[in-house]
Design a protein that fits this description.
Number of domains: 2
Number of helices: 11
Strand content: 15-25%
Distance between the termini: 81 Å
Radius of gyration: 42 Å
CATH architecture of the largest domain: 2-Layer Sandwich
Bound molecules: 3,4-dihydroxyphenylalanine
CATH class of the largest domain: Alpha Beta
Number of strands: 9
Helix content: 40-55%
CATH superfamily of the largest domain: Bira Bifunctional Protein, Domain 2
Order of helices and strands: HHHHHEEHEHEEHEEEHEHH
Shape: rod-shaped
Structural class: alpha+beta
Oligomer: single chain
Largest sheet: 7 strands, mixed
């Protein structure tokens, strides 16, 4: 009996050593531990033995049986891992797929940068509504109805019952000046970034919506000299260390007097207009019930898109808005 047990065990160990796959292992399991296995027969014959025989042989047979079970289990686990590595859909040796992180749109980046520079010069960042009324977008800014200057700001009107103070999509950020001054008293200095809308034919430099940044600084004795300093400081910081030539040209905007346009010289030697500005018109101060004899200040407005185009040498404003990932991913 004991010899037989030993023989079974030896054969099992040998055969197990030669097993290379799980199917074969399963056959071995059935062969050595199944109901019709030799070991099964031996264990079945225990009941015909004497008590002494049973005591001696039974425990040995059970130990052998447990040992066989354990070895099969261990081998099974090894084979499973090996097979999983080579055959399974899960190939843990493959390099992973890169998880792409999103990032801010170039216009948002440029806006953030502009805000940061003005904040460092003690300007506060405020916002105004994108849907405006006619009064704030035009009248309060000294652009009366039927004035030819209104044509500069052709826009989208909101459908509504006829009446006074119609609603429209703001054509510029300048109405935010009025909102702010209606609620605050000078001295202050603010910037207002935001989206604006125009009824435009689209081309490389015109979109029907784009971004502007309004600036307004009002106090007892704020002058054009202060404006010049602030603006030059801003552009030097924005174009980090590049040498910049400025040109201030007399210009006309209804809400300032005098009005100026600021040009900067590009690397190709051409001048490029980057902002409109001027000393706030006394009629504007009157609209917000400031006394124009007591205070004065400057205002300016610039296109964020245009600054981004200059900074990153982007030839077409429409690229910002058409959602082409080949463009967006470059920033
Ligand atoms: N609002 C003007 C525009 O959209 C830009 C502008 C010009 C703003 C002169 C100003 C300014 O504050 O003083 O064309």
């Amino acid at each position: 009996m004991l010899e037989k047990l030993k023989k079974i065990r030896d054969e099992f160990v040998k055969e197990l050593g030669n097993t290379q796959d799980l199917d074969h292992l399963e056959k071995i399991r059935v062969k050595y531990t199944g109901r019709k296995s030799e070991l099964g027969d031996l264990l079945g014959s225990l009941k015909d033995m004497t008590v002494e025989e049973r005591r001696e042989f039974g425990s040995k047979a059970n130990i052998a049986r447990n040992e066989i079970d354990d070895l099969i289990k261990e081998k099974g686990e090894n084979l499973y891992h090996k097979q999983a590595l080579t055959e399974s859909f899960l190939d843990i040796t493959k390099p992973g797929k890169k998880i792409e992180a999103g990032h801010l749109h170039p216009l948002t980046k440029v806006e953030d940068e502009i805000k940061q520079i003005f904040s460092s010069m003690n300007f506060s960042v405020v916002e105004g509504p994108e849907v405006e009324d006619e009064y704030h977008n035009f009248d309060a800014l000294n652009i009366p109805e039927n004035h030819p200057a209104r044509e500069m700001w052709d826009t989208f009107w909101i459908k509504q019952a006829e009446g006074k103070n119609r609603l429209l999509l703001r054509t510029h950020t300048s109405p935010a000046q009025i909102h702010y001054m209606e609620k605050h008293q000078p001295p202050f200095q603010i910037i207002v970034p935001g989206r604006v809308f125009r009824y435009e034919a689209l081309d490389a430099s015109h979109e029907f919506n784009f971004y502007q940044l309004e600036g307004l600084m009002v106090g007892k004795d704020i002058s054009l000299a202060n404006f010049k300093f602030v603006v030059e400081e801003f552009f030097k910081k924005f174009f980090k260390g590049q040498k910049i030539d400025f040109r201030f040209r007399a210009s006309y905007f209804p809400f300032v007097e005098p009005g100026v346009e600021v040009d900067i010289k590009l690397q190709n030697g051409n001048w490029m207009e980057v902002m409109g500005a001027g000393m706030v018109h006394r009629n504007v101060f009157n609209s917000v019930k400031y006394n124009p004899n007591d205070i004065q200040g400057f205002a300016f407005g610039m296109g964020i898109d245009r600054l981004a185009m200059i900074k990153y040498k982007i030839p077409d404003i429409r690229l910002f808005y058409n959602g082409d990932l080949r463009f967006i991913k470059q920033f």
